[in-house]
Amino acid sequence: MDFESIYHFLFETYVGIGVLVGISLVLCTVVAALLELRTRKTYVDRGPSEDGDEWSIFDDSDQEQ
């Protein structure tokens, strides 16, 4: 196979475009997983805050009267 036939398959056929999209999705997923692992290693869970002033989207605003 020469470069021209590979180029034609990848960029000029529906199956080739599907292969490119699939490879892109797999590559992005792998990179995101690696970055998430590095982030978790750097910022270890420190537990809940001691001041009790945690904000949550599900908090009732009635309690703050």
Low-confidence stretches: none
Order of helices and strands: HH
Instruction: Provide the helix percentage.
Output: 55-70%
Indicate the structural class: mainly alpha
Q: Keyphrases for this structure?
A:
65 residues, mainly alpha, 2 helices, elongated
Provide an overview of this structure.
- This protein has 65 residues and is mostly helical.
- The chain has a domain at 1-41.
- Helix 1 (3-12) crosses helix 2 (14-42).
- Helix content is 60%, strand content 0%.
- It contains two helices and no strands.
Task: Please outline the helices and strands.
Layout: H1 3-12, H2 14-42
Helix pairs in contact: 1-2
Structure described in brief:
This protein is mainly α and 65 residues long. Helices cover 60% and strands 0% of the residues.
